[in-house]
Amino acid sequence: MGSIFGPAYSSRLLFIAYHRRIGCIPRFQKEPDHQRAMASILEKHGLKFVNPADGQEVADQLHFSHAVILPPNARTVIISGQVGILPDGSVPQSLEDEYDEAFTHVENVLRAIGFGEDALEYVFDATFFLKGGMDPSLLVEVARRRFKSTRPATVGVEIAQLLHPDLHLEIKVVAYMPDSVAA
Q1: Which residue range forms the structural domain that includes residue 39?
Q2: Least CB-packed of 14, 65, 93, 134 within 10 Å?
Q3: Neighbours of 27 (CB within 10 A)
Q4: How far is CA 109 from CA 21, 100, 101, 172, 183, in A?
Q5: Which Pfam families is this protein grouped with (predicted)?
Protein backbone atom coordinates (compact mmCIF):
# COMPACT_ATOMS: atom_id res chain seq x y z
CA MET A 1 0.00 0.00 0.00
CA GLY A 2 1.49 3.36 -1.01
CA SER A 3 0.38 6.93 -0.77
CA ILE A 4 -1.07 8.79 -3.75
CA PHE A 5 -0.96 12.31 -2.36
CA GLY A 6 0.61 11.39 0.96
CA PRO A 7 0.02 13.09 4.26
CA ALA A 8 3.40 14.83 4.17
CA TYR A 9 4.36 17.71 1.90
CA SER A 10 7.44 15.87 0.64
CA SER A 11 5.25 12.97 -0.53
CA ARG A 12 2.99 15.40 -2.38
CA LEU A 13 5.98 17.03 -4.00
CA LEU A 14 7.30 13.65 -5.19
CA PHE A 15 3.82 12.76 -6.46
CA ILE A 16 3.61 16.01 -8.43
CA ALA A 17 7.14 15.73 -9.79
CA TYR A 18 6.59 12.14 -10.95
CA HIS A 19 3.22 12.79 -12.58
CA ARG A 20 4.42 16.01 -14.18
CA ARG A 21 7.37 14.06 -15.63
CA ILE A 22 5.09 11.42 -17.17
CA GLY A 23 2.70 14.10 -18.44
CA CYS A 24 -0.29 13.54 -16.12
CA ILE A 25 -0.10 16.87 -14.32
CA PRO A 26 0.86 20.12 -16.03
CA ARG A 27 3.24 22.63 -14.50
CA PHE A 28 1.73 24.55 -11.61
CA GLN A 29 -0.66 27.20 -12.75
CA LYS A 30 -1.79 29.69 -10.17
CA GLU A 31 -5.52 29.94 -9.76
CA PRO A 32 -6.96 33.24 -10.88
CA ASP A 33 -7.30 35.77 -8.03
CA HIS A 34 -11.10 35.54 -8.13
CA GLN A 35 -10.90 31.79 -7.35
CA ARG A 36 -8.45 32.30 -4.49
CA ALA A 37 -10.71 34.96 -3.01
CA MET A 38 -13.69 32.60 -2.98
CA ALA A 39 -14.43 31.80 0.65
CA SER A 40 -15.47 28.32 1.62
CA ILE A 41 -18.88 28.03 3.24
CA LEU A 42 -17.02 26.38 6.13
CA GLU A 43 -15.06 29.56 6.86
CA LYS A 44 -18.37 31.25 7.61
CA HIS A 45 -18.89 28.61 10.32
CA GLY A 46 -15.51 29.24 11.96
CA LEU A 47 -13.39 26.54 10.33
CA LYS A 48 -9.93 27.69 9.34
CA PHE A 49 -7.97 26.27 6.40
CA VAL A 50 -4.18 26.43 6.75
CA ASN A 51 -1.39 25.95 4.24
CA PRO A 52 2.28 26.68 4.99
CA ALA A 53 3.93 29.17 2.64
CA ASP A 54 6.05 26.44 1.06
CA GLY A 55 2.97 24.25 0.55
CA GLN A 56 0.53 26.76 -0.93
CA GLU A 57 1.42 26.03 -4.54
CA VAL A 58 0.77 22.28 -4.30
CA ALA A 59 -2.43 22.96 -2.29
CA ASP A 60 -3.66 25.26 -5.06
CA GLN A 61 -2.83 22.71 -7.76
CA LEU A 62 -4.51 19.76 -6.05
CA HIS A 63 -7.36 21.78 -4.47
CA PHE A 64 -6.83 20.71 -0.85
CA SER A 65 -5.71 22.15 2.50
CA HIS A 66 -2.77 20.96 4.57
CA ALA A 67 -4.74 21.50 7.79
CA VAL A 68 -8.27 22.34 8.90
CA ILE A 69 -8.93 23.81 12.34
CA LEU A 70 -12.40 23.23 13.78
CA PRO A 71 -14.10 25.72 16.10
CA PRO A 72 -14.80 24.62 19.69
CA ASN A 73 -17.80 22.28 20.08
CA ALA A 74 -18.08 21.69 16.33
CA ARG A 75 -20.47 18.89 15.37
CA THR A 76 -19.13 16.53 12.72
CA VAL A 77 -20.36 13.53 10.79
CA ILE A 78 -18.22 10.70 9.42
CA ILE A 79 -19.39 9.21 6.13
CA SER A 80 -18.22 5.66 5.52
CA GLY A 81 -16.57 4.69 2.25
CA GLN A 82 -18.73 5.40 -0.80
CA VAL A 83 -18.14 3.91 -4.24
CA GLY A 84 -19.39 4.65 -7.74
CA ILE A 85 -21.90 1.84 -8.18
CA LEU A 86 -25.04 2.82 -10.11
CA PRO A 87 -28.55 2.18 -8.67
CA ASP A 88 -28.86 -0.98 -10.80
CA GLY A 89 -25.68 -2.40 -9.23
CA SER A 90 -23.47 -1.87 -12.28
CA VAL A 91 -20.22 0.08 -12.50
CA PRO A 92 -20.20 3.06 -14.90
CA GLN A 93 -18.26 2.55 -18.13
CA SER A 94 -16.03 5.62 -17.73
CA LEU A 95 -13.78 6.45 -14.79
CA GLU A 96 -15.11 10.00 -14.67
CA ASP A 97 -18.69 8.70 -14.35
CA GLU A 98 -17.59 6.25 -11.63
CA TYR A 99 -15.84 9.03 -9.69
CA ASP A 100 -18.85 11.34 -10.09
CA GLU A 101 -21.18 8.59 -8.88
CA ALA A 102 -19.04 8.04 -5.76
CA PHE A 103 -19.26 11.77 -4.99
CA THR A 104 -23.02 11.61 -5.60
CA HIS A 105 -23.30 8.82 -3.02
CA VAL A 106 -21.39 10.94 -0.47
CA GLU A 107 -23.72 13.84 -1.27
CA ASN A 108 -26.82 11.61 -0.92
CA VAL A 109 -25.74 10.41 2.54
CA LEU A 110 -25.20 14.02 3.64
CA ARG A 111 -28.62 14.99 2.29
CA ALA A 112 -30.23 12.04 4.12
CA ILE A 113 -28.83 13.55 7.32
CA GLY A 114 -30.39 16.92 6.51
CA PHE A 115 -27.81 18.83 4.48
CA GLY A 116 -29.05 20.88 1.53
CA GLU A 117 -28.02 21.16 -2.10
CA ASP A 118 -24.58 22.42 -1.06
CA ALA A 119 -23.86 19.30 1.04
CA LEU A 120 -20.34 18.68 -0.30
CA GLU A 121 -19.33 22.22 0.67
CA TYR A 122 -19.36 21.06 4.32
CA VAL A 123 -16.73 18.34 3.82
CA PHE A 124 -13.47 19.31 5.54
CA ASP A 125 -11.64 15.96 5.43
CA ALA A 126 -11.52 13.46 2.55
CA THR A 127 -9.70 10.18 2.10
CA PHE A 128 -9.55 8.68 -1.38
CA PHE A 129 -8.74 5.00 -1.85
CA LEU A 130 -7.66 4.60 -5.47
CA LYS A 131 -6.94 1.27 -7.15
CA GLY A 132 -3.23 0.86 -7.89
CA GLY A 133 -1.88 2.00 -11.21
CA MET A 134 -4.66 4.54 -11.77
CA ASP A 135 -3.76 8.06 -12.89
CA PRO A 136 -4.99 10.32 -10.06
CA SER A 137 -5.20 13.48 -12.21
CA LEU A 138 -8.82 12.71 -13.23
CA LEU A 139 -9.73 12.27 -9.56
CA VAL A 140 -8.18 15.65 -8.75
CA GLU A 141 -10.22 17.21 -11.58
CA VAL A 142 -13.51 15.64 -10.41
CA ALA A 143 -12.82 16.51 -6.75
CA ARG A 144 -12.10 20.14 -7.69
CA ARG A 145 -15.41 20.33 -9.58
CA ARG A 146 -17.50 18.59 -6.92
CA PHE A 147 -16.01 20.30 -3.84
CA LYS A 148 -16.29 23.73 -5.52
CA SER A 149 -14.94 26.35 -3.10
CA THR A 150 -14.12 24.08 -0.16
CA ARG A 151 -10.68 22.50 0.09
CA PRO A 152 -10.75 19.56 2.47
CA ALA A 153 -7.66 18.16 4.13
CA THR A 154 -6.99 15.26 1.78
CA VAL A 155 -5.19 11.93 1.82
CA GLY A 156 -4.96 9.66 -1.19
CA VAL A 157 -4.13 6.00 -0.67
CA GLU A 158 -3.22 3.59 -3.44
CA ILE A 159 -4.65 0.13 -2.81
CA ALA A 160 -4.43 -3.20 -4.63
CA GLN A 161 -8.19 -3.64 -5.06
CA LEU A 162 -11.56 -2.59 -3.66
CA LEU A 163 -14.14 -5.15 -2.54
CA HIS A 164 -15.80 -5.02 -5.97
CA PRO A 165 -13.04 -5.87 -8.51
CA ASP A 166 -14.40 -3.50 -11.20
CA LEU A 167 -14.32 -0.41 -8.96
CA HIS A 168 -11.42 2.04 -8.90
CA LEU A 169 -12.31 4.54 -6.13
CA GLU A 170 -13.75 4.66 -2.62
CA ILE A 171 -14.29 7.97 -0.79
CA LYS A 172 -14.52 8.45 2.99
CA VAL A 173 -15.26 11.95 4.30
CA VAL A 174 -15.81 13.94 7.47
CA ALA A 175 -18.18 16.90 7.28
CA TYR A 176 -18.99 19.80 9.60
CA MET A 177 -22.62 19.81 10.76
CA PRO A 178 -23.99 23.34 11.16
CA ASP A 179 -26.79 23.96 13.65
CA SER A 180 -29.23 24.15 10.73
CA VAL A 181 -28.76 20.39 10.21
CA ALA A 182 -30.81 18.59 12.84
CA ALA A 183 -29.60 15.02 13.05
Answers
A1: 2-176
A2: 93
A3: 7
A4: 38, 14, 12, 11, 12
A5: Ribonuc_L-PSP
